[in-house]
Design a protein that fits this description.
The chain has 15 helices and five strands. By secondary structure, the protein is mainly α.
């Protein structure tokens, strides 16, 4: 039996209900209640990395939509509400109800969608929407947006259907509650929820949290775990086989923000530390595979998006610094580097201010907010 989208919205709704009924002083109780609910849900639907009936990547992408930085839908509350108004052919009164999200205290667009559609909701849904249908639709919508990652733009098969028609065909098959959650998934806004992501990751597979530390995308982490063989007695633990893969961004270690020198010393708590100068630049992770020839450089941004083309001006300096293509090249096959991208002025012999970066780095081919900048 196909895995239905309603199964995911059942979990999301339960987590929202938990958050709404819990006071701040009961935060510990809320965490445990959410953990128990998540573990029960995962077990009842057999959501595992090896499940033959559940696409676990689609599940994770739906429950953590903000982590899919590679998918950009180009939809915000104003544009999405207009599309939904046309899809459901709403009259003036119901459009006013739908647009109450604009008024403080009336809830987000997702809640207003639920209220509006609930008025005309009737009976059992004949053709319920599956999770894979939702995931496929979102992937296709993202593939039409030039700000999505290159692999997303190139992988989906676009049949020419307009985004509004794709959304309409799915929304018409959803209950009002499911429509609420789809709206929030599209907008990547789960502000009404309060649960720890590692509770779900651990419930799906206890190795998944560690796998995400090395492979920052769900596809790469889940793919790695699926390819692992059972470790026989006497062999090293399974997770010791985790290795970075060139082409798959490595997850960043968590950072703590120090408020003062004294606070930093307290945070360090006697641990060994390495100290380096902090440059005011933009984080980037560089992957190099010499087997790819001239196109050997791949660059990921802080969010995990493939920004290789946008950071084209970095390719030359990277190749020069590593002596790529020369006998004294610093490595033989592959390497991964982390660093801060800065703009250096040879004329002034100094690193320029952070805002100068946007003059040299585009976003999907566009230079944003640079019209009034000085050179």
């Amino acid at each position: 039996m196909p895995f239905l989208f309603s199964a995911v919205t059942d979990l999301l709704q339960a987590l929202e209900d938990n958050a709404a009924s819990t006071k701040i002083a009961m935060k510990g109780w809320l965490d445990q209640k959410n953990k128990d609910h998540i573990e029960s849900w995962v077990k009842s639907y057999n959501v595992t990395v090896d499940s033959p009936t559940v696409d676990v990547v689609a599940v994770l992408s739906t429950i953590f939509p903000d982590k899919r930085t590679d998918r950009v839908y180009g939809l915000q509350p104003p544009s999405l509400s207009k599309i939904l108004g046309r899809c459901f052919r709403l009259g003036v009164a119901r459009i006013e109800q739908l647009d109450k999200w604009k008024t403080p205290g009336q809830g987000d667009l997702g809640l207003c969608v639920e209220r509006t559609l609930r008025e005309t909701e009737h009976g059992h849904i004949i053709n319920p929407v599956t999770l894979n249908e939702i995931d496929s639709m979102l992937h296709t919508i993202a593939s039409k947006n030039r700000f999505s990652a290159p692999d997303v733009r190139s992988s989906a098969k676009d049949d020419g259907t307009e985004t509004s028609k794709m959304l309409g065909s799915v929304y018409h098959r959803l209950s009002s509650r499911e429509a609420k959650w789809l709206t929030r998934i599209i907008l990547k806004d789960f502000s009404t929820l309060d649960f720890k992501s590692h509770h779900l990751l651990n419930a799906v597979d206890t190795r998944l949290v560690n796998a995400m530390d090395i492979h920052s995308t769900y596809e790469a982490a889940v793919g790695f775990l699926r390819n692992q063989k059972t470790v026989s007695k006497g062999q090293a633990p399974l997770m010791t086989s985790l290795r970075p893969i060139v082409g798959s961004k490595i997850g960043r270690v968590p950072y703590l923000k120090g408020r003062s020198v004294k606070n930093v010393i307290q945070l360090a708590a006697g641990r060994k530390m390495s100290v380096e100068q902090k440059y005011d630049g933009e984080y980037c992770q560089v992957h190099i595979d010499l087997a790819k020839g001239e196109d050997c450089v791949q660059i990921f941004s802080k969010s995990g998006k493939d920004s290789t083309k946008d950071r084209q001006r970095l390719h030359g300096p990277i190749k020069q610094s590593l002596h790529i293509g020369k006998p004294d090249c610093k490595f033989t096959r592959k390497c991964i580097l982390e660093g801060e991208m800065v703009v250096y002025s040879g004329q002034e012999s100094r690193i320029m201010d952070f805002h100068k970066i946007r003059k040299h780095v585009s976003r999907s081919g566009s230079f944003l907010g640079t019209d009034l900048d000085s050179q």
